[in-house]
Design a protein that fits this description.
Elements: H1 2-23, H2 28-36, H3 43-46, H4 50-61, H5 64-74, H6 78-84, H7 95-98
Helix pairs in contact: 1-4
Length: about 100
């Protein structure tokens, strides 16, 4: 159980790093806001929701150049980004049964 808890915490930290990456990019941020329907001032509040963090990773994973740029800047491997989403709510259909 502690292992899954740690994996979930690691996934959440990775997703927060991805959110910071998106928020700091003047081209990505407007696209992210348009897709999510959020306003810039709502991001901080939304970041507290694990479901939102799965959405951030989905956004990164949906565009390979964005994924590769994030990985280059953060040091995360693309496979780790793809794997992390499974440990966040709404990251896959099996999340609830895995906890």
């Amino acid at each position: 159980m502690a292992d899954k808890t740690q994996q979930a915490a690691d996934a959440e930290a990775l997703a927060i790093a991805a959110l910071a990456f998106v928020a700091s990019d003047p081209e990505l941020l407007p696209r992210f806001l348009a897709i999510t329907g959020l306003e810039a001032q709502s991001i901080r509040q939304a970041a507290g929701e694990p479901e939102f963090l799965a959405g951030v990773l989905n956004f990164i994973l949906a565009h390979e150049p964005t994924l590769l740029k994030f990985c280059e800047e953060s040091g995360f491997e693309p496979a780790r980004v793809a794997a992390a989403i499974r440990f966040l709510p709404l990251g896959d259909d099996g999340y609830q049964s895995s906890i």
